Amino acid sequence: MDKRKFSTAVAKYVVNPLTRAFAGYVPLWALLETTGRKSGLPRRTPVGNGIEGNTFWLIAEHGHKANYVRNIKANPKARVRVGGRWRNGTAHLMPEDDARARQRNMRRGNAALVRMMGTDLLTVRIDLED
């Protein structure tokens, strides 16, 4: 099994179910909601808390192959739950951004896990509405 398949399975069946309940309420995690590109249904994924004012930053560990990135390509409208509150925004994929350099300025815990399990890092910026 290659690294991407392994880390995706671990996230889907172990990490995400455990953190989904707490994401958005504890400082380390947030919850990203995108619209399913095929189903049109809300899809929620725990992500590292990358809030900076009215901007939310995250690093997709599998780049353009991550399901939430594929959803963003189809519909850039997204929501993020941080601090127990949902915020609407518009997501932008930033392939020109240096994802590793950006991670150095983000909260440490999740960034290390993304670097370890990631195969193709991609920066995502979400411009949040007030």
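The above is record 1. Record 2 follows with the same two-line structure.
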Amino acid sequence: MSLTAGILSWSAFIFALIAVLLAPWFFGAWQQWWFWPFFTCLAMSTFLFAARLLVRAYGHRRSDDEESTEEDVFRHHRRGWLLASFIPFILYAIIRTFQADVWMDAERILLLQLSALLLGVQVVSGFSRTQRLLCFGFITVNFICLGAYGIVNHVLTGSSRVLWAPAYELYQAEHRASGSYFCPDHFSGAMELALGIGIACILVRKTHWVAKLAGLVLCGAGLTGVLLSRSRGGGLTIVVMFVVAVVFGFSTWSRRSRWLIRGAFAIAGAAALVLFATSQHPFMKRFLIYFPFSDLRGKPAIEVRAAVIDRLAQTSRGRMISAAWRAWRTNEKTRLWGIGPGMHQNIWPHIAATPDGDRKSGTWPTMPNYDFHSYWVHSDWMQLLEEYGLVGLLLFLIPTGTVLLFMLPKSRAMPHETVPATGSHLLSLAGIMAWTAMAFHSLGDFNLQIPANAWLLAVLVALPLGQLHGRTGQPSQDEVTA
């Protein structure tokens, strides 16, 4: 039986790894014809994971030296609470999906959410410690290759092609790198995850020199990738990630060294930010074009505030977010339950970005949306509120906050930490940085609607959760046998 369980364990691991590693290389699995093959891999992985659980439950008995310790029971309960935090939102999402007016659009969103959750569950409860470390290593190497391709492709071809397909003319005209993604902002999202791993490899003490070297390469590739993508959201995300790294990145250092290094990093980061903000780099000019407020100097604060809101609302993202906000505020029902998953793109032409239209008098709004289509809000958080309502947003915040709390390697609720400090802190810091990058960047983009980025985030967050709250000790019999 243990041989069967071992084969099932490694087969599930391989299928999961195929989707996680290859999806970014096929345009992020954004289009339906690339989404389904990788979703099938994750479905096979989940099936094999479930089969392994059945084999262990009905055919495997622990030996005396494998009896659960008090610490194992504690960790088992922690995993139970972690999984339970996701159940209310997933059940709510399933119910709202069956109530959706356009089933095909709601289905894809639900499957993306379910696949990311089931992938995370496998990493936490199904992967062994060896498999988690292997997975982290493969992802690290894959990110280096993704960054290298994006940089080389931009230098040699100006990102005129995305793999074998022609690039979008809009992004090519702006000279923006998109790597293996069609959109530079999504390439930036992947590079932010790579940067998070690089930061963790460098800042955690006593990591192997190979990890330090990989961290340096990842930081270089990640920063360069974001810079070449010229993603404004990516640029702001780097600033936020730097602040989080200063706060959480030195917990393995001595107290005196910790504060000295934090101060030095804070000064260096502030200086770099000032230099970049005062430079004439094309990336910085994109920020200035986006915020042309120099003519408002000296005017009253009320006028400045009104002008800023008005100008931001006229940008493409402003129009999408404003329209989504108005769709959510349609009535008490939509405010509470949302308009339905996947319905944003269907009601978009009927909701204007400005509220000055009047049906009775036949007055058109200043900024209608019938000539400007939007599949996504370009704000994952706003789309979550629009489509799932206030109830869905609150239910989603429960697992989001629980995951962040459980990733902290020195939580007070973890009385017997036996995982080596270097490994647990490395995975935890990488997970925290990934969580930070996607949570912040998703305020102004839809990286979590890109399957590859959503699956990568799920794995990077689940790895420390499994390492901190998984069973400790020697490798399982299944690993040894396999």
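Residues 2-60+127-283+409-481 form one domain.
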